[in-house]
# Entry
Amino acid sequence: MARKKVTIHTLQARKAAREPITMITAYDYPTALAVDQAGVDVILVGDSLGMVVLGYPNTLPVTMEEMLHHAKAVARANPSALLVGDLPFMAYQADLAEAVRNAGRFLKEAGMDAVKLEGGQEMVSTIEAIVRAGIPVMGHIGLTPQSLHKLGGYRLQGRTAVDARRLLEDALALEAAGCFAIVLEMVPEPVATAITQRLRIPTIGIGAGSGCDGQVLVLHDLLGLFDRFTPRFVKKYADLHREIVRAVQAYCEDVRSHRFPGPEHAFSMDPEELAAFQVMLEAFPAPTPVEESK
Ligand code: KIV
# Structure
């Protein structure tokens, strides 16, 4: 039986009931089907797809068209989970009207339920404009990978009291601007916990400890499908990269040793049609084998 559709109100109720929210990324139809069947609350079509699916060095090259292409595939799985499309770098930073239009494309063209964007107080007017257009917005503060170069790398954020206070102020500003939830990425656990306790909206942590209202991981990290690097905050639940190599090696060995395809994978033919075909074949002699040049 299909689950009840998860909405932004479901997430709010989870926070009130202190029931942890589960969020995971997915970027295509089969993984969306699988994670939804597993019962996840939120599916994020994250711009992390640039790294784990498209092989870019970071998330900066990801375009709106690439995001929409993957978001549409996820939506075709018709998940019960809340679907969040991640606004990629330069889809919302330069211009308010462009930000609203791009956010709208996720709902109008790609079947998403909400969008996510990165940044703190500097993003308030953008968030307000998108929310005014009727589009739910998830915030994202702490380590914001689209600001990789400004931050000087993938580093823990909010280490000092002053930086931690600024993060709290960012979170309160995002809540006031109308965000329905906020991702806290790579923030010390006590800072994430303090922010969570001071917000009415849920926080979803990644590398932010256990005090958040929910947790999110990149699917390919959790499955061991992306082996370029694994951040310390990731818990690997499978080693699918190794499993894929093993399976494809076994397939190659089977083909090379004539074990695949077997009779169970082949199709036979009506004996009379086969006999007639064999007579016809006499008019088509097989070529004489060419000798391999040395
Ligand atoms: O793009 C992404 O996958 C994300 C998560 C890490 C929160 O933003």
Observations:
- The chain is about 40% helix and 10% strand.
- The chain has a mean pLDDT of 96.
- The radius of gyration is 25 Å.
- Strands lie at 21-25, 42-45, 82-86, 114-116, 137-142, 181-185, 203-206, 214-217.
